[in-house]
Amino acid sequence: MKVLIVDDDSIVRRSFTRFFAGYKGDITFQVIEAENGADAVEKAKTEQPSMVLLDINMPVMNGLRAAAEIKATYPEYRVAMVTSSISPKDLGEAKQANADLYITKGATRKEVVESLSAAIDILILGKPLPDGQSLIPYVRDGLQAIFENRAW
Fold first, then answer.
1. Is the separation of the CB atoms in 9 and 35 below 8 Å?
2. Nearest 5°: phi and psi at 44?
């Protein structure tokens, strides 16, 4: 399964690449990287990833605009915003861009791994959401991620 990691920080991209390379599940991931939103839109066309992880604040084209363009063309792609922003404005814009997931950076490595693992379970493997909810706030020690099964 292909995953596209988009962040202008090469250290962040490497960290996510290591996570997906070491994923302990029934899926093997092929990681593709991009350093800005414009590059992400192009790679989404050519590489056809199952999941796209996008930072919001990047040069050339920000992640919100890239998410909107990718989801408009490929609504079946699962798009996750992975950002340091906890701004309600950015969250609202992520919803408008039809992003499927919103995860804040700045959490511990363990929390990010748990959050990404849950994202794979829900968005890629289609596992049911707990308690039949369609929108679940997932908050743990400063990590806030919002999961959703198909639409906000």
1. no
2. -65, -35
Q: What is the pLDDT of residue 109?
A: 63
Query: Structural domain tally of the chain?
Result: 1
Whether the CB-CB separation of 68 and 97 falls below 8 Å is answered with yes
26/5 Cα distance (integer angstroms): 20
- Answer yes or no: is pLDDT of 18 > 80: yes
Give me the domain span that covers residue 21.
2-148
Burial code (b: 16+ CB inside 10 Å, e: under 16) for 57-73 equals ebeebbbbbbbbbbbee
Decide if pLDDT at 12 tops 50.
yes
User: What's the CATH code of the domain at 99?
Assistant: 3.40.50.2300
